Model the fold of this input.
Amino acid sequence: GKNANPQERRAAMKNAEQFIQQMNYPANTQIQVLPEGGETPMFKQFFKDWKDKDQSNGFGKVYVTERVAKIEQIEFDATKLHESPQMAAQHNMIDDGSGKVEV
Done:
């Protein structure tokens, strides 16, 4: 990972080289070193529960590891649109809504 020190990185490379020898793979078998978060889909397919940072799950559940912004919920009153002719025009309101319509 990104917090591994040089000694840990060398040990990981040595383990990979030993694995290649134990499996009798060709001497020219390449070892890929990927940055944390840069794993390819081909690599991730072997891990059933792999979760990427900020990956959504279903409809909008996101795994956030940093901080979350606080959003103030403001109540919306649609009748206030009638008080401002400019606002009513902007939102294509036909009239002031005081009449009756039979459908």
